[in-house]
Design goal:
- Pathway: Lipid metabolism; fatty acid biosynthesis.
- GO terms for molecular function: (3R)-hydroxyacyl-[acyl-carrier-protein] dehydratase activity; isomerase activity.
- It catalyses: a (3R)-hydroxyacyl-[ACP] = a (2E)-enoyl-[ACP] + H2O.
- InterPro entries: FabA, FabA_FabZ, HotDog_dom_sf.
- A hairpin with a 2-residue loop joins strand 6 and strand 7 (154-167).
- The protein has 3 helices and 7 strands.
- It has 169 residues and is of the alpha+beta class.
- It has helices spanning 10-17, 66-70, 80-97, and strands at 39-44, 54-60, 103-108, 111-114, 124-136, 141-151, 154-167.
- The chain is globular and about 50 Å long.
- The protein has a single domain, classed as Hotdog Thioesterase (Thiol Ester Dehydrase, Chain A, Roll), CATH 3.10.129.10.
- The two termini are 25 Å apart.
Length: 169
């Protein structure tokens, strides 16, 4: 289905952030510190719970990550919006991985439930995304997916109906 591998290390993700993986003007990840994953361990366009694609990725939690110093002093917690952004980043990455053209942008999310926190003593986040829809027409390229974030194996975020699109403009 794709000309790209099904796993990516940090160097590959940084190439994507520089526009070197999918080509200039196409899906791109942010650079650190906003890059919210260290590796993608599995990706497909026809796997997952619905057979419409999936992504599994990991983010190593280190006590010196930039957001712990400012959110909140004396009570360090990773902002929940950063975990959501990681899910959006990976959803857009999957669209670029499929070979679809355009720059990615988040369109929204249907439902978000945060049931746990990421503190500096956590070791790793695991993102799991399952596409419910992936479509490319003359007017629209979009993925819709559900996702979870696990911290050291414990589910802490559940997201339904994330929407990410690619646009050539």
């Amino acid at each position: 289905m794709s000309q790209y591998p099904t796993s990516f290390d940090r160097d590959d993700l940084l190439k994507c952030a520089r526009g070197e993986l999918f080509g200039e003007g196409n899906a791109q990840l942010p650079e650190p510190p906003m890059l919210m994953m260290d590796r993608i361990t599995d990706i497909s366009g026809d796997g997952g719970l619905h057979g419409k694609g999936h992504v599994v990725a990991e983010f190593d939690i280190k006590p010196d990550l930039w957001f712990f110093d400012c959110h909140f002093p004396g009570n360090p917690i990773m902002p929940g919006c950063l975990g959501l952004d990681g899910l959006w980043q990976l959803t857009g990455f999957n669209l670029g991985w499929r070979g679809w053209q355009g720059r990615g942008y988040a369109l929204g999310v249907g439902e978000v439930k945060l049931t746990g926190m990421v503190r500096p003593d956590r070791k790793m986040l695991t993102y799991k995304i399952d596409f419910t829809k992936a479509l490319q027409t003359r007017r629209l390229t979009m993925g819709v997916a559900d996702g979870i974030v696990e911290a050291d194996g414990e589910v802490i975020y559940v997201v339904k109906d994330m929407k990410v699109a690619l646009s050539e403009s």
